TrEMBL record:
It comes from the Bacteria. This is Peptidase. The chain crosses the membrane at residues 250-270. It comes from Streptomyces badius. The keyword Cell inner membrane does not apply. Residues 1-34 form the signal peptide.
Amino acid sequence: MTGFPRRARGIRRALTGALLAGLTLLTTAGPAMADDPSASASPAGDEAGPTEAGTTFRTATALKQGRSGTARASAGDYLYWVFPADAGQRPTVEATVKLPESAARRGTSTWQVDVYDGLRRRQACMYGHQTRKATADAATVELSCVLRPVRSWSEPWADDPLPGSYYIRLTVVDLPAADLGLPVDVEVRTSVKELGGGHDGGGTLAEPLVPGVSVASAGESDERASDGPRTLATGEPEDGWASGWWTDRWLWTVGGGVLAALAAVFGYSLTRGRGRPAHVPPGL
């Protein structure tokens, strides 16, 4: 009878170690993946960005993730850029406006950057300086907007960010009439931070919110049928859109199931007892 208690204690110790290891893995895996600097933003690389901006949604200049673009415009113009963002990402938009010399300006100006999704719904900023004033002697004005995490699916009535194209609109919203038309130099930068599947909505979109993606998809189907080359939809990320079924939630689900099974075995080993006492005759 002495061998069984020792064996039970060994089992309990092994299960306790496995539980602690599993809990440590689950509690540290998520933050480590979310805070990994290598996965936070796409590298800018050596490729030069565009040197002009569109003036409407339809003529918006395309930007790649993690890239910047420049433009020379006039105060009062509406400037547009567009970039892609996928599920599990948190986009950030930054803009720098280089103002004319103070001697040429007449007063204070107010600049604003707005971000719209593929349905042209204005998206709220989690934080940042979306609107800023520039005094008459200011040389530059810095703007920023950190969007909410992009979800893989949302209710039709909600305004949650969804995978697809995101439009940047930069303009001056308050300016002395005498300063209209003065030349300005603008630079916009985009970056995305990978957050993983913690913000998934439990579903997927039939198509990302990219203008013309349905037409492009139909064209791709025809090309595949004729063994022709594949054409990427305009505004698609370099590595393609997320497949929609795999997220790191699967790791949490499987890990939780394993921990639950270990906890059940551990609880059973604690409550099963040591069997029939030696002084109790069989059959009682």
